[in-house]
Automatic annotation (TrEMBL), chain A:
Keyword Transit peptide part of the UniProt annotation: no
Keyword terms of this UniProt record: DNA-binding, Sigma factor, Transcription, Transcription regulation
Organism: Leeuwenhoekiella aequorea
Domain RNA polymerase sigma factor 70 region 4 type: 113-165
Family, per entry: Belongs to the sigma-70 factor family. ECF subfamily.
Protein name: RNA polymerase sigma factor
Annotated PANTHER family: RNA POLYMERASE ECF-TYPE SIGMA FACTO, RNA POLYMERASE SIGMA FACTOR
Pfam hit, one: Sigma70_r2
Length: 172, 165
């Protein structure tokens, strides 16, 4: 039986960790870029999951609920990082991308580095939508449930994100 | 979402759908041309997911809760417990209700006084004499041999019994 259909009362925390840690990790990693930061956020996410598991009442799919927590934790982390470094969002992103080329856990070529640079210039919401649609391959109705945004707004957001990325990479 | 009511088709569409379609399509095609394959550019340390799994589960193991004792709460609990114990004591081992003096039978009082040789201390000679005159072991109210014998000094009975032998 898929964990998605299990009665909320019988969900075991260990099963959630086992089934969803990788999916959540990659979702977080693409938001925060560095492995160390993604590791921190992933653990914070599961701490939150553990503390709130008894409040999950099955009104959404379990992975939707998990994604929501992971997304919020990622955004909280990014905001906190910005506050503690006293850098503007733009400067912060520039630093992250500059570090990425020498990051041992990044194996992309110049084109991929350019793509990551472009993604990190996007506003937070657009970046979220792009990552969830392009990398996580979620459907619009799933993203809508996670972010609480209408599908129409999400489609518009995704389109604008793709346009900005393309323009940034091509130098337009 | 505006609906195009001029459309003769059975289904409706957003009013500017086709206007924005070209833009959306060509943007997507351009992007696909730049990045034809989705590439996973991020990697993780060896055995990361196995290790992090154990770490997460260990971190979130239920810990023993430290219960802080509030003196007021503790005192209330102690008093409540003491009250229960006292109540139980009385339920299990009820104290007999004190008897009214009136409920004591005359025979009981007299027996006590006679047995304890207390009569002379409570009654004057005149009173004792009156008692003798006014009471009788053959009183009609006394219809039990046991009651009669209660009046007679046990020594007298034994003496008479011996004499008869």
């Amino acid at each position: 039986m898929s964990i998605k259909t299990i009665n909320p009362v019988s969900i075991k925390f260990e099963d959630l960790v086992s089934e969803y840690k990788e999916r959540l990790y990659w979702h977080i990693r693409r938001m925060v870029i560095s492995h160390e930061d993604a590791d921190d956020v992933l653990q914070n996410t599961f701490i939150k999951v553990f503390k709130n598991l008894n409040t999950f009442n099955g009104d959404s799919q379990i992975y939707t609920w998990l994604y929501r927590i992971a997304t919020n934790e990622s955004l909280t982390f990014i905001k906190k990082r910005q506050r503690t470094t006293h850098l503007s969002n733009e400067d912060l992103q520039d630093n992250l991308i500059a570090n990425l080329s020498s990051d041992p856990y990044f194996n992309g070529d110049d084109a991929q580095l350019k793509l990551q640079e472009a993604i990190n210039t996007l506003p937070a919401k657009q970046k979220q939508v792009f990552i969830m649609k392009y990398y996580d391959e979620l459907q619009y109705n799933e993203i809508s449930e996670i972010l609480g945004t209408s599908e129409g707004a999400l489609k518009a957001n995704y389109h604008h994100a793709v346009k900005k990325i393309t323009d940034h990479v091509t130098g337009n | 979402m505006e609906i195009d009511n001029n459309n003769k088709e059975q289904f409706n569409i957003p009013s500017d759908y086709f206007k924005s379609f070209d833009d959306r399509l060509f943007t997507e095609l351009k992007f696909q041309k730049l990045f034809p394959n989705k590439v996973d550019v991020f990697t993780v340390p060896k055995n990361y997911f196995e290790d992090v799994s154990l770490k997460i589960i260990e971190q979130n193991k239920p810990q023993g809760k430290l219960i802080s004792y509030d003196f007021k709460t503790f005192a209330k609990a102690f008093v409540a417990l003491a009250a229960v114990v006292v109540l139980l004591f009385y339920v299990i081992n009820p104290v007999g209700t004190p008897e009214d003096f009136d409920s004591l039978s005359v025979s009981s009082i007299e027996s006590y006084l006679i047995d304890q040789d207390q009569l002379p201390y409570y009654f004057s000679d005149e009173d004792l004499s009156n008692i003798e005159d006014n009471t009788s072991i053959f009183d009609q109210q006394l219809d039990s041999e046991e009651v009669i014998y209660d009046y007679i000094d046990q020594d007298i009975i034994e003496t008479s019994w011996t004499a008869d032998q």
